[in-house]
Here is the input.
Amino acid sequence: MEAITLPVYNTDGKEVESVKLNTSVFDAKINSAAVYQTVNNYLANQRRGLAATKTRGEVSGGGRKPWKQKGTGRSRVGSIRSPLWRHGGVTFGPLPRDFSYTIPQKIKALALKSALGIKLKENNLMVLDDIRLERPKTSAVSKIMTNLKLNSAKDKSVLLLVDKMENNLKISLRNIAFLDANLARDTHAYEILAHRKLIITKGGLDELTKRLK
Here is the structure.
């Protein structure tokens, strides 16, 4: 497969150079099965599993038998905390549990490649030369997004992947609702697919390529 070339933009929104994507990472093959497994795994691992109900033995009260076993004409009952009674315990209710499980790293890598391929196919992948801020300023990042013709109304959600998360940049991103940022080496398939647009710096692209090569 022939290498795909993408333009590289600076923070003023001007094209300054171009970069060739590694064919072993951006091979245009979408493995939907790997994406499905990885996304399901990520969402399952996020579940806290804290839902809990009490059985008849855990509900307070109900220690004494309400009435004698025989002779009253009523059905036999051993406790007022029977699941059949109001304020009684719950039969087969949810209990705290761990929903997390693991899948092979190769499947995760394949899903990440597929997620990148999807963004590339949709023309939603943009390469940024670099992003440095002299001081923490939200308006500076907002101006960069405007220069790149990105906004919340049209693009809804944007993910910025960088090679190094500087403190000034981290603080400046806090108040921009439609923009999220992460280190390229820590990103995953779900994070990329959950955002409409993907911006990645040249340094971040190099790190991601080394990781998936």
In short: The chain has two domains: 5-47+102-212, 49-98. The longest helix spans residues 105-121. The beta strands are 5-9, 15-20, 125-128, 158-162, 179-183, 197-201.
